Amino acid sequence: MKHFLLATTLIFSAPAAMACETVTIGDLTVEHAWSKATIGAGRPGVFYVEIKNSGTTDDALVGITTPAAGMPMLHETVVQDGIASMPHAMSVPVPAGQSVQLAPGGYHGMLMELTTALKEGDSFPVTLSFEKSGEVTVNVDVLSLRAEGPDCADAGQ
Amino acid sequence: MLGVGAYRTRNRPARSEVLPVPIGQMTWTLTDHQGRLVRPSNWAGRPVMVFFGFTWCPDVCPTTLSDISLWLEELGADADRLIVALISVDPERDTPDVLAGYVSNFDPRIIGLTGPADEVAQAAADFRATYRRVDKEGGDYTMDHTAGVFLFHPDGRFASIIDFHEDRRFAVPKLRRTLS
């Protein structure tokens, strides 16, 4: 019986996919972390994630690090007068009581100098540094280049 | 549909003071991802959808190509006569082979086009698109570029643009109007 219970617990606690993993630090919840497969290691990879701040203090994502890339940076896609550019973002505000998404067409992590090509089905860790809450590491699922987001049961996007 | 274009022009003078010229008046010659030469005359009589981008682009380009792939799937066989082309603004890195590897990730009806720098510049001028190289530290570079998707009627007249941040629900109806 004990073994049966243990097995059941394992089944129900195993996430459907890494991207559906949720990690918390202080008042912040970090979830739905995903990336896209790359063709070779020469092109930059991308990193998307959702951050909820359930506290009463504003915070900000100020940097990301990962063993998957030599130079990971925060960027923002900006479309002005029809022209898309991708300036470096010094930080991504995570205001109190709000949710922020790094998502296609907006803020995103740009993973330059990939150590190896990102392949669909792989996962890699990314450590997020917050101005006030400190650091937290989340596992990032590599989806296809065509993917528009992770398929999580609770993904309210 | 030209009325829509004119309306856009009045409201966004910085973006499109001039509309793209009709396909039949364009003068570029590019090479597709299978190494074949492509000229505007090859597209005569067919509706056209063109997007400028580059394969090193991590966010805007795969997102747009994913969207286009979904639109094409929704249109099904209705879109089979539609020419769908990604024109690279980074011909230095985007050779036909590189483009072939890239477009194979999306709907098979999407073709990649590249060519000598002056031909890419001619294509951008004909479409009234712009692009600019932005150097980054370490010798790497990225490209700023027009992000909208250009639509043309089967007779080559410019139809409309699907903006990058436009509500995607309007894209398929817009496309249907272009196809008919």
Automatic annotation (TrEMBL), chain A:
PROSITE patterns (alphabetical): PROKAR_LIPOPROTEIN
Keyword Cell division assigned: no
Family matches, as Pfam families: PCuAC
Record's keyword annotation contains Isomerase: no
Origin species: Gemmobacter nanjingensis
Keywords: Signal
Alphabetized InterPro entries for the sequence: LpqE-like, Lxx211020-like, PCuAC_sf
Record protein name field: Copper(I)-binding protein
Record's signal peptide: 1-19
Organism phylogeny: Bacteria, Pseudomonadati, Pseudomonadota, Alphaproteobacteria, Rhodobacterales
